[in-house]
Design a protein that fits this description.
single chain; 318 residues; alpha+beta; six-stranded antiparallel beta sheet; two-stranded antiparallel sheet
């Protein structure tokens, strides 16, 4: 009996061994590599897919502008984290001019709560933003109580550098820093300024401002579609509307153009502010508009045309 048992076990061992060898032999015949042959082999690791770049946005980075003027500064807020970056002097101030009209409109509408504005008031709110209409903005500022409108701005948007014009609390002469300007932009964007009912409406009006920097017809119609938005690539503007509110005035008191640009997007808000001579070269607001566009372009991340990163394919021995 023992010889028979030995023979049966030997046959079984041969069959098992043959069963293990057949797949390895088939793999070699078909061009594959054995994972367990004598001496080992090189593992075939699938090539990783190319890593797509992150969705373009604006992010903190170096900005270089050959600026000819008395004052230039900018600030950028990451609205996801609340972090603010910018120029070393981003706490210095400039007169707000028409940039502050977005707050004046928002403050008036928020106080209505669920009450609908009259047709005349709603038209004033629209034209104060879309046409940067001074008469409409002044009417809403008066309706809001004048100086209290600015006091609420400082308190509700948690501004730290802003100062109200001391004599008649004129809204255009409010002194605001780029750092506070992006806080104001975020305050408008997150619904604090206009409240839940009117925030989308205000942002939509800001996304549809009319006219270029040269379309200044009167205090009622002032072109406002210029600046930061002109420096953004299609890869950013295609993600959704960018809400903007600019302001500029040549003040005879100091002989300087006061130019401000504000833009609010879902993930960021950017402000660029400057003063430069109203005579000589440069001497037009178009110069300031180009500076605002340049700052925005330099902060685009990743830069347009950046190559995809393809990871190295790891190869190892088992």
């Amino acid at each position: 009996m023992r010889p028979r048992v030995t023979m049966v076990l030997a046959i079984v061992a041969v069959l098992i061994g043959g069963g293990m060898l057949v797949p390895a032999a088939y793999a070699k015949l078909s061009g594959g590599e054995s994972l367990g042959g004598i001496g080992g082999g090189v593992a075939q690791v699938p090539a990783p897919a190319p890593t797509a770049p992150p969705e373009p946005t604006l992010a903190a980075g170096p900005v270089s502008v050959n600026f000819k003027g008395k004052f230039f500064s900018w600030a950028l807020m990451d609205r996801k984290t609340g972090k603010i970056s910018g120029a070393p002097n981003m706490t210095s101030t400039n007169s707000t001019e028409s940039m502050i009209k977005a707050w004046i409109v928002s403050d008036y509408l928020r106080q209505l709560r669920d009450k609908a504005p009259s047709a005349a008031r709603k038209k004033q709110a629209e034209t104060a933003i879309r046409d940067s209409n001074d008469i409409s903005a002044e009417a809403l500022y008066n309706a809001g109580g004048r100086k209290p409108v600015l006091i609420r701005l400082i308190k509700m948007c948690k501004l730290t550098d802003t100062k109200i014009e001391p004599t008649k609390a004129k809204w255009a002469y409010t002194q605001m820093s780029p750092r506070d300007a992006v806080r104001m932009g975020d305050c408008i964007g997150d619904g604090t300024a206009a409240g839940p009912k009117w925030t989308k409406w205000v942002l939509n009006e800001m996304a549809h401002v009319r006219g270029g920097v040269k379309d200044q017809k009167s205090e009622a119609v002032q072109g406002g579609h210029w600046g930061i938005v002109d420096g953004l690539p299609e890869s950013i503007t295609s993600q959704g509307p960018v809400s903007i509110k600019n302001g500029f005035t040549m003040l005879w008191a100091d002989g300087q153009w006061h130019v401000n640009c504000l833009a609010v997007a879902d993930d960021w808000t950017l402000a660029v502010m400057m003063r430069y001579p109203g005579a000589g070269d440069p001497k037009t607001p178009s110069y300031g508009a180009k500076v605002c566009a340049s700052v925005a372009t330099q902060l685009v991340t990743p830069q347009p045309g950046a190559a995809l990163k393809v990871p190295q394919q790891p190869v190892g021995k088992l």
